[in-house]
Design a protein that fits this description.
With about 325 residues, this protein is α/β, with parallel strands linked by helices. Helices cover about 45% and strands about 15% of the residues. It folds into 3 domains: about 5-45, no CATH class; about 60-155 and about 290-320, Rossmann fold, CATH 3.40.50; about 160-290, Rossmann fold. Helix 1 (about 5-10) packs across helix 2. Keywords: DNA-binding, Repressor, Transcription, Transcription regulation. This is LacI family transcriptional regulator. GO terms for molecular function: DNA-binding transcription factor activity; transcription cis-regulatory region binding.
């Protein structure tokens, strides 16, 4: 690999001048900077960020930990985060826990071994954050993108409880009284959507029925298809269904299409996250919008603040972004 010394020898300038020019220092005349950059390109020079990190104590790298790398929503968040960080001169180091707490710990250990400047984390279990709090207290700049927001760690997330509450209220307002829920996250310490669903029902005097809550045992379209089959096989099936994500809802739409169940005439379907495919489903899907770009922007801004104030970190913040409903043809007024 070409070194600063090689560029200096090629241009007849000092190593310090070359270094300043490549950092676009105004102390170096523009024509000299152009000359040095041409020489660097001719030598195929690549900056040694490891060497820079020894001097600056920054690697300009951020660790981003997702729970499911196959999720269209989390892919969109990752893309938005990567763009925000790139604009600020940072590189994103991506990892996924795949819903496994041991994988989550290994990913965090990898981030620390790579000496990332900060971390953005989707925790596997929103109610068990002690290991993440310990990292934050020990001085690791960190922002969680989901969680309960209690304790010594920053959280910037969508208010999922409010999203499920509003979606269920919309279905109730359309006349539905027997509403199903497809969501297994509450069994993994992430109860916000189930709580919002139950809250909406109880507000108008309906006691939630356990038989109408199905654990899909996964988050894919196939899991949604199988869960919908279980709900609609009940002796009194629901007239509306809320799902924990749009992929589950898309599986439900497919089941309805295969079994001659008209959406929304026979059953209304409400998704969550508003991924791109929701608008173009066989029946365009109503969904709770997840503002990935806005969330990424706020989370990155907060993380950079923590990095710049590492020696005297500000008190942790909790920001819950309020959701919006995107209403399409899959929901309608119940007869």
């Amino acid at each position: 690999m070409a070194r600063l010394k090689d560029i200096a020898e090629r241009t007849g300038l000092s190593v310090n001048t070359v270094s300043l020019a490549l950092r676009d220092s105004p102390r170096i005349p523009q024509d000299t900077r152009d000359k040095i950059r041409l020489a660097a390109a001719a030598l195929d020079y690549t900056p040694n960020y490891s060497a820079r990190a020894l001097v600056s104590r920054q690697t300009k790298t951020i660790g981003l930990l997702l729970t499911d790398i196959t999720s269209p929503l989390l892919t969109q968040v990752a893309r938005s985060v990567e763009q925000e960080l790139k604009d600020l001169g940072y590189v994103t180091l991506l990892a996924a826990s795949n819903g496994d707490p041991e994988e989550e710990l290994r990913a965090l250990a990898t981030f620390r071994a790579r000496q990332v400047d900060g971390m953005l984390v989707y925790p596997h279990d929103h109610s068990r954050l002690d290991h993440l709090r310990r990292l934050r207290v020990a001085g690791t700049p960190m922002v969680l993108l989901a969680g309960d927001g209690e304790g010594d760690v920053d959280v910037i997330c969508l208010d999922e409880q409010a999203g499920a509450l509003r979606a269920t209220q919309h279905l109730l307002g359309a006349g539905h009284r027997r509403i199903g829920l497809i969501d297994g996250a509450y069994l993994r310490g992430n109860p916000a959507k189930a709580e919002g669903y139950e809250m909406a029902l109880r507000t108008i005097g309906i006691e939630p029925s356990p038989e109408l809550v199905i654990n899909p045992e996964g988050d894919s379209v196939g899991h949604g298809h199988a869960a919908f089959a279980k709900l609609m096989a009940l002796s009194e099936p629901p007239t509306a269904v809320l799902t924990a994500n749009d992929r589950l809802a898309l599986g439900g739409l497919r089941w309805c299409q295969e079994n001659g169940v008209a959406v929304p005439r026979d059953v209304a379907v409400f998704g969550f996250d508003n991924i791109e495919y929701a608008e173009y489903a066989s029946v365009p899907l109503s969904s709770v919008d997840y503002p990935a770009v806005d969330l990424a922007r706020q989370a990155v801004a907060r993380l950079i603040t923590l990095i710049r104030n590492r020696d005297q970190a500000p008190p942790p913040e909790l920001i819950r972004i309020q959701p919006e409903l995107v209403l399409r043809e899959s929901t309608g007024r119940h007869p």
